[in-house]
Amino acid sequence: MKLITHNMLTSKSIRNVNVGYPLIIKAIDIKLVDISFNMEFMSKLIPKIDWSVLYEAVDSLGHSKDLPKEAPDNYENNEDFLKKAHHALLEIDVIQGDLVCPETGRKFPISNGIPNMLLNEDEI
User: Fold this and answer.
1) What distance in Å separates the CA atoms of residue 87 and residue 89, rounded to the nearest whole number?
2) Distance from the first to the final alpha carbon of the chain
3) CA–CA distance, 79 with 40 (Å, rounded to integer)
4) What are phi and psi of 103, to 5 degrees?
5) Quick one: DSSP state of residue 83?
6) DSSP letters of 3-24?
7) pLDDT tens-digit profile of 5-48?
């Protein structure tokens, strides 16, 4: 599961969950993958990202060393920043682990890089 996916997931569909965001990542296995950098794509993606959530996720996985805590002004022309964002969003891949609802503690397993967000009947 790439962190771009994590940034958009919520457990709000669980009964009695008000926000369900951000999900807590408990990773067992992480893989770093090389993905071609596209500056235009990244500059259009940044405004759609909850940057503080991304930073916390990257930090919890031990990969926040070069990532700034905030997106800089004028990021569209900052190739260095966009490459760091690209790495965080697209090249860090959680292979095994869990996503945990911050309100209920409900765990959603990540297996082979795919988060299983299916709910049990009693949770709907």
Assistant:
1) 6
2) 24
3) 10
4) -100, -35
5) H
6) HHHHTT---TTSTT-S---SPE
7) 999 999 999 999 999 999 999 999 999 999 999 999 999 999 99
What DSSP element (H or E) covers 26?
A: strand 24-32
What pLDDT shows up at residue 109?
98
Q: Each residue of 92-118: pLDDT tens digit?
A: 999 999 999 999 999 999 999 999 999
Exposed / middle / buried, residue 32 (Cβ in 10 Å: 0-12, 13-18, 19+) = exposed
Distances (CA, A) of 25 to 2, 50, 61, 77: 11, 15, 8, 31
**What H or E segment, with its residue span, contains residue 52?**
helix 51-60
Location of structure tokens 């067992």: 28
Amino acid at 93: D
pTM, rounded to two decimals: 0.94
